[in-house]
Amino acid sequence: MLRIIAIGMNHETAPVELRECLGGDADNPRKALTWMRNLEVVREGLFLSTCNRVEAIFVSDEADAAKESVILLMARLGGGQTGDFLPCLYVLEDRDAVRHIFNVASSLDSMVVGEPQILGQIKEAYALATREKTSGVILNRLMHRAFHVAKRVRSETGICGAAVSISYAAVELARKIFHVLEGKKVLLVGAGEMAELAARHLLAHDVSSLKVANRTFERAVEVAGHFKGVPVSFDEIDSELPNVDIVITSTASPGYVITRDQVKHSLRKRRNRPLFFIDIAVPRDVEPQVHDLSNVYLYDIDDLKGVVALNLAQRKEEAVKASRIVEEEVGKFEKWLKTLAVVPTIVSLQDKAESIIQAEFYKSRSALDQLAPAQHEAVETLVRSIVEKVLNDPIVFLKERAGRPTVNTYLDLTKRLFQLNGMETEARGEMEHGE
């Protein structure tokens, strides 16, 4: 009996040092597929490697031997002993493996629930398995259903709608204030990582310009180059405040870089245009009293953390809805998987019918050759229609019994009635090789 198995480690089960052993080499997925392809106990295989997880997903009819071989393969990839990896590995089979794969594709098993990157990484892993010819009938179906599940989760739930990073939350707040960010001007004060990331998000929303101020002007030039922006000196901050719409601060200054008096002075030239401050620095760069000024909005890192915490709670609620979708799709896939037991018999039944049609046409070729092309086509259509209708009931009957304890009895009866035993082996071989 063919089994679907997933063996791997992720951010919850293994430290980064161990994950790095398996995922550090960019060529490891291709190596893993090559080795799996050469394992007689593995029928189909896929290997997923990201910064937070390393997994082998495979199909086998010798589950125990296959699991042992794949674990040995992973240890070999990581350059360690099997014992080093075993405590950190999870091993899932059949329904549990399918559910796990659907959860991963839907980003329900990610460090940040709802992050979109994992689906692209799974698609890349599947594309590699396809190129390396290690994916077959079952994994092909499984991965396409995983993509379908991920699409359903994203379209039917709000799991991806709420910002869950400080930088992205800042941009979401800016959008609420300005409604649209297109055409807005941004001043980046300092060059912290989160501020840079917020700037990238803002640029993705088509802000019109970005200026970068830093105590070290050379660093301002460097960062501005990343964003095709304009470097300015710290002394120019006062003169820039009347012109910009959004200010992101992230310096290591022990005191305030922007004060209430500075901002108040700039407002006279702004003509009531709103000014939005995102202060991601600790200690803070912007004097808190700035928020008291009319048409000025100031958010510090604690405000943003509150937004992120609220959004994470919302995502958890949406994750419950997403889990229901996953369970529904797991049931559908399991039902399809059970039909595989009857497929070789159905295929051989159809093949036998086709061979009879061809043999009878051959016997009647002298009479059929007297017909016009349109008449010949009409006869062939009639014959095939009759055969399809005769076979339809037994085929539907077998499919409905797939997965039931009595299915083997009905399969055996069908083979005897139609004398299919010699043909089924060939049909099963074609199915397993994806032909």
Name a few traits of the molecule:
435 residues, alpha/beta, Beta Polymerase, domain 2, Rossmann fold, 3 domains, 6-stranded parallel sheet, 4-stranded antiparallel sheet, 10 strands, 13% strand, elongated
Straight-line distance between termini: 20 Å
Principal-axis shape equals elongated
Number of helices: 18
Strand order, biggest sheet? 7-6-5-8-9-10
Radius of gyration, whole Å: 31 Å
Largest sheet: 6 strands, parallel
The name CATH uses for the topology of the largest domain is Beta Polymerase, domain 2
Q: What number of domains?
A: 3
- What is the name of the CATH class of the largest domain? Alpha Beta
Low-confidence stretches: none
List the helices and strands in order. EHHEEHHEHHHHEHEHEHEHEEHHHHHH
Mean pLDDT across the residues is 86
Query: What percent strand?
Result: 5-15%
Q: Give helix % range.
A: 55-70%
Q: How many distinct beta strands?
A: 10
